[in-house]
Amino acid sequence: MSNLIEKTKSAYEYPLLIKQLFLAPLSNKPNQQIVYRDQLTLTYKDWKERVHRLANALTSIGVTQGSTVAVMDWDSHRYLEAYYAVPMMGAVLHTINVRLSPEQMVYTIDHAEDDVIICHIDFLPQLEAIKGRILEGRKFILIDEGGEVFKHHFQFEGEYEKMLADASPEFDFPEFDENTRATTFYTTGTTGLPKGVYFSHRQLVLHTLSTTAALASNSVQGRFHQESVYMPITPMFHVHAWGIPYIATFLGTKQVYPGKYVPAMLLKLLVSHKVTFSHCVPTILNMLLKEPGTAQYDLSNWTCIIGGAALPKSIALEALKRGIDVFAGYGMSETCPVLSLAQLTEKDLDLSIEEQTELRSRTGRPIGLAQIRVVNPEGKDVPCDDKTVGEIIVRSPYLTQGYLKDHVHSEKLWEGGWMHTNDVACVNESGSIRITDRTKDVIKVGGEWLSSLEIEDVIAKHEGVSEVAVIGFPDINWGEVPLAIVVPKPDAIFEDREIIQTVKASVDNGVLPREAITMKVQRAEVIDKTSVGKINKVALRAKFAQE
User: Fold this and answer.
1) Is residue 334 flagged as an active site residue?
2) Domain range for residue 251?
3) Is residue 36 classed exposed, middle or buried when 0-12, 13-18 and 19+ CB atoms within 10 A define those classes?
4) Under 8 Å between Cβ of 221 and 327
5) Residues in a beta bridge with 423
6) N vs C: which end of the chain shows fewer Cβ within 10 Å?
7) For the segment 45-55, what is each residue's pLDDT rounded down to a tens digit?
8) What is the pLDDT of residues 214-244, one digit of tens each?
9) Considering 68, 108, 183, 187, which one is annotated as catalytic?
10) What's the pTM?
């Protein structure tokens, strides 16, 4: 006898659509606030009307199910409106990375087949530079916040706020297959053309529910819940700002959107709105901690997930000393992105902050619907000894099914039915993962593998070092040796041999393998970053291999 569930003819199957995330907060917390910089405060009720008005405005210029609507904006309430209105119409939201090169931007706009581009006035110069290659067949909407007047040659369908004001506040969002594509964005890879990553309504809803449960269920640390005050410090064009705006709206929390990232404004908003929960890459947190006058701000009620790159222990320790509840999260563009969190138990919180730093900087444990394995080259799970390394491979219902229009790379991504991350890691006996490097960043010294991240952690503790990146450098005798690229703190005075001595001390203490003493040091004024603030080791290798 079949054990398949019988379907009652009149039963409602409840497709997992983004519009279902839209219901509870509007019923339960219609007067909760959504804030934009120090310029605007909306209630959820106001914001709901704006979402409906945006859908009507887009419909009026020809957007239908299957159309693609692109956005170029700072982190704002408008971006949040697009997160909902566009996919809820059955259209696809393309979040354009405004930091891409002109060539890459043209490629992504064409590849995504954008029908409409909503553009903030600040980004008009970038569009103007490529207008001859993107004008045909596309429509444009201007977001005019009264910025600098820029001469352009675009025919806009209208100005965003005026179009919303003229549109009806009621829109009947349709139902359709939950596997319909909702969003597209492009990886910020350091080599080749960007790859299109896409997610369905079902995947975004499942990621929202799984990550909500993970963040809300820990009773003592790293929590995000209905009474939180949320501010993203990760660009909304990048993996849906890690999906956290969907969670914030689903929970009905107060949301604060900072617009263009200016350290003074970020700190002002953090304090004035008593923000309790954010997320960012390590370079942003480091920037905030080093901002002149930051010591005057009380950040002891602030929880911040660090992702996009490994959380350096030196930054984690400095944040903990400021009272910030900082911890690492792990994922990638292709995973929607959250896979694991380095949350602490009540027992862990009894440890010293130095000991906590070790735990908070790990990759952490998988969240509910994420299945993570660390495997050797033969595909076998490595032992849970926190030493033996392998590649992280993953499965989850919310992982992208591939790259848009790119069968070859999609098959490679999903080789063997598991998504391959190219991250090298080990696992301890409690199941906590610790990434040691990217496969392409591991340094091979005389046949032995060195972790660039572990060496960076050691060097970053030197009191004169502001920033550090470690890459492999060609060497006749060893094949490759570590090259530490060091940015000194202002007015810091130290010799390169002090950095080498710091590494040697960690070798003597058994923290680093002995091959680390082959390291060389190179000073720099800045360290190259990708468009989302990660250290760009491909660019660094290309630059310093010439020197």
Assistant:
1) yes
2) 200-368+393-404
3) buried
4) yes
5) 438
6) N
7) 999 999 999 99
8) 999 999 999 999 999 999 999 999 999 999 9
9) 187
10) 0.86
